[in-house]
């Protein structure tokens, strides 16, 4: 079956697409699907890829993490109480932090070494719908019509 594509991430070698209960991995050379990662939690709304992991956020509050080499699922991260709309990574010396934005008005910070939630940030008064990073800072946007800068 065909389902809406709600998230895309491109690297030099692969295009990753998120839709209903799956992440498809497309070869950039052939534009053919090379792998399909199955997940629970309804539609995939957000995707990011690190040097070690493929990570998606779903409609039903979950964040799924796969090992990029073996393509095996290594963790399901829970804590949000709503759709995970956006994911972004912030590398710091010795660590990689994952930031997730949700319908529940929060941003969660995940330690990707331990695969645990290190912090929950809540300064928005509406669902947090997008995240990006620049110059070591996190920027978030929400349905409360605000942008926030996190140091």
| Proportion in β-strands | over 45%
Number of helices: 0
Low-confidence stretches: none
User: End-to-end distance, in Å?
Assistant: 43 Å
Structural class: mainly beta
- The secondary-structure element order is EEEEEEEEEEEEE
Query: How would you describe the shape?
Result: globular
Topology, element by element:
Blueprint (H helix, E strand, L loop, with lengths): L6 E4 L3 E14 L5 E17 L3 E6 L4 E5 L5 E5 L6 E9 L2 E8 L4 E5 L4 E6 L6 E7 L2 E6 L4 E4 L1
Antiparallel strand pairs: 1-2, 2-3, 3-4, 4-5, 5-6, 7-8, 8-9, 9-10, 11-12, 12-13
What are the salient characteristics of this protein?
mainly beta; four-stranded antiparallel sheet; 64% strand; 151 residues; 13 strands
What does this structure look like?
By secondary structure, the protein is mainly beta. It is 0% helix and 64% strand. The protein contains no helices and 13 strands. It has strands at 7-10, 14-27, 33-49, 53-58, 63-67, 73-77, 84-92, 95-102, 107-111, 116-121, 128-134, 137-142, 147-150. A six-stranded antiparallel β-sheet has the order 1-2-3-4-5-6, with no helix packed on it. A four-stranded antiparallel β-sheet has the order 7-8-9-10, with no helix packed on it. It has a three-stranded antiparallel β-sheet with strand order 11-12-13, with no helix packed on it. The model has no long low-confidence stretch (mean pLDDT 95).
């Amino acid at each position: 079956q065909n389902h809406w594509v709600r998230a895309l991430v491109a690297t030099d070698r692969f295009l990753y697409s998120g839709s209903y209960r799956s992440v498809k991995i497309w070869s950039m050379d052939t534009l053919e699907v090379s792998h399909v990662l199955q997940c629970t939690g309804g539609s995939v709304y957000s995707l990011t890829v690190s040097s070690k992991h493929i990570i998606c956020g779903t409609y039903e509050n979950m964040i799924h993490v796969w090992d990029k080499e073996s393509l095996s699922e290594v963790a399901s991260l829970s804590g949000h109480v709503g759709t995970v709309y956006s994911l972004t990574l912030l590398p710091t010396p010795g660590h990689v932090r994952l930031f997730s934005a949700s319908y529940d008005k929060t941003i969660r910070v995940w330690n990707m070494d331990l695969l645990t939630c290190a912090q929950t940030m809540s300064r928005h008064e509406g669902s947090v719908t997008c995240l990006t990073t620049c110059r070591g800072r996190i920027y978030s946007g929400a349905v409360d019509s605000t942008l926030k800068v996190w140091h």
